[in-house]
Request: fold
Amino acid sequence: MRALQVYAGAHARAHLRDRGLAPADIGAIPAAAGGPKGLVLNPLDRFVFGHWLNRSTQVVHLLGASIGAWRMACACLTDGEQAFAQMAEDYIGQRYEHAPGRAPAPDHVSDVFGARLAERFGGREAQVLGHPRYRLHVFTSHGRHLLGREGRLRTPAGYLGAYLANAAHRRAMGAWLERVVFSDGRDPLPVPLRDLPTRSVVLSPANLQPSLLASCSIPFWLRAVHDIPGAPPGAYWDGGITDYHLHLDYAAMPRHAEAAALVLYPHFQRAIVPGWLDKSFKRRHRATPRLDHVVVLAPRPEWVATLPNGKLPDRDDFKRYADDVPTRMAVWQRAVRESQRLADEFAELVLRGVPIEALPL
Reply:
């Protein structure tokens, strides 16, 4: 049984069929929100950034929301491959104090998680912001009006409003939440962002860690991050709220004759869902022309069925295993070990330099 399936938009499928895939073809790499699901991409990340992409010289834009932002920040460290391995160890080993039968307090989760980010990125901001080739873009969701500040009553009321607005039309959610992207100041994000109200803030040593924490701050599970340096004041939450899988207008990226500027997307599923609040709206999961230049690397569903519990790791595992942390850790560790096959099969495809037959998105 094969573990990896390649999917691609119309232009990218033709390119793969005619020329295969080379490191120089890549102009951007998105990284989705999705919590523990992202763990199965860890070996693939280590191969792409540690062995394959460094065979080219072009600038590559790295776009991340939530765990995806953490992953892409790891890629920008000088020891990126080791940073990815450490990230998997950190994520699997999460422990939070809590009363029996109750979820841990959001303040506690934020404090513990923020301390871990400080441990991994503190004093290394210059590496992330000065990488010679990679340009990091961290996606966050910035509260507006009622969600401008976190509060016991205003936050649930504000998110109810955001849900109802989004149900009517995705752009209507912008009345409650806007997208704020913290971007490498050397090169702007080459993807136009017209689907939601959007602001861009230059990444700096002062706001790198706060923006990463904000991008990972799931509402009601972690507290919001307020008043990030250099950014508009207010509350910032998980980037996956506005951009769950970063379904952006990649087809509008500037392209040059000498470079295909494909978008390589290591993902844990075939569909690229626009926002977290769109999960229940299946019609919004369909591919669009905006993804014509996108190549998705995803696990095959039949391979996923061979993993523990027949699924990818997910947040429900925290409830499934409750205080049995060693068992949860063992299950997630096995999933990461098994997902080495994704990296091995991708390496087999690209190192041979042969045409690739991809399925449509």
Summary: Residues 25-291 form one domain. Residues 113 and 177 are 23 Å apart (CA to CA). The chain has a mean pLDDT of 96.
